[in-house]
Write the structure tokens for this entry.
Amino acid sequence: MVRRRKSLKKLLLNWRVLLLTFVLIGSVITLAVRPISWGIDISGGVALVVQTEHPVSSDTMQAIVMSLQSRLNTFGLRDIQVQAEGNNIILVKIANVSMSQAQQIKNLIQKQGVLYLEFDGKVFGTGKDIKVMRYGLDLQQGPTTWAVSFTISQSAANEFKKIAANKVGWPVDIFLDPPVNSLMVVSPQVYNAMNSTYFNGQAGSAAPTLLQRVEKALNITVIKYTNQSAQEIVSEAQKLGKDMIVLADVPKNVSSDVSRIVNDQKLKIQVVSYPGPTGGDYYSYVKAILHLYGPYTLQFNPATGNTRSLQLTGSTPSKKQSLEQAKIIYTVLKSGSLPVKLNVTSMQFISPSLGSSFKKQALYAGVIALIAVLLVVFFHYRRWKIAIPVASTSLFEVTIILAVAALIHWNLDLPSIAGIVAAIGTGVDQQIVITDELLGGIRKVGRGRLGVMQRIGRAMFIIFASAATTIVAMSFLFVYFVGTLRGFAFTTILGTLIGILITRPAYAEIAKYLLSEE
């Protein structure tokens, strides 16, 4: 009995078992405080494979990715992932969108970004007129002042000089893909925000309001929502010859009814709806629905000097925030003049309800697989003291893999879950190799028998060789393949590494202790 207690104490203090214990406790805590990020095939959403018309440089690819991220953010979407793959493929994944939104996203991606420079209700330049020079901090103006420098074409400069002469302090608006030629039906709060002097810079009431500027420059008609019916809204858009209806902060049933009428009547009118602002910030909300950046205050008189070289500046509380803001503006300016066309080569849509069903099925499959492992190992060895540790080790591995995925915000989709299952299956095989070596791997070496450590060493050699092969094969998939195969490869590699570094060595020690009792 004393010897048994000493053996158990030695097992519990073994560094391999302690490592497994600490990692497992940390994994449970991680899963308790940080939720798992599910892929779109489980949470629901759309995945698009976007291809450039020809291969591009890494700098251009980065600009395209930043541009798509910016454009989709202004589209009012959340949970967006834009990822470059090589020099001509981009993956776009967006969770929790409807089928109609998915189609709008596809159209938006394939549409070249259109950027407008507007002043006093007149568009004086577009993205084609802009050449972005640089962005960063302007330390001469302040430690946290950001600046973005760019030039405009001579024709744009001439127009700007004509309309902005002697109007220092007036607002300069920059729009990226605004709802041109649209009817905007907005709540009274949104209408009042657009019609206020908040967006007028230092000019105050001397300058036209944002509502007046967008109507004159972009043919956007803004009306208050005063309980109009959906048919009245559609009829008004038809009468005005609008290409789009934008519904902002209006009841959800009105938005759905307008979309239904447009679809039933097969009208060539796009319908876009935005839920109300979070936190009641209607000014930021207005900028989002108009895809507006700025307004920026005119700091010089364009009637004098060279107006082709311009600079946007601003300041934030910290250098980091200033650099982020400068990068956003730099991206917006680049977005209006991307040098390459984008084509959506494939689009996969998963409804949220179907995704929820997949999640339940994956959970049931995992539980059934764990029970199956327990029973198969028991019937093979006829020992619960072997079957329970093997199944428990598999459960530990799943827990650790999920915790690591949650920690690094890796989206778990169905191929990723398949990779976990593959890693666990390999793990069970390797645990059986260890068990067989301990039970029956006895052979003559001279006059003696192989010792326990030699047998475990031989088993671990087989395990490491198998793991190395798996990691090399999966690394090829992870690096060179696009799409869902990367998720499968990642979780397979992760599970294999966790196994050979943490769980297999700990299981070997536990099995050695349990079988030595016999």
Notes: Residues 441-449 have pLDDT under 50 and may be disordered. The radius of gyration is 31 Å. The CA atoms of residues 111 and 342 lie 8 Å apart.
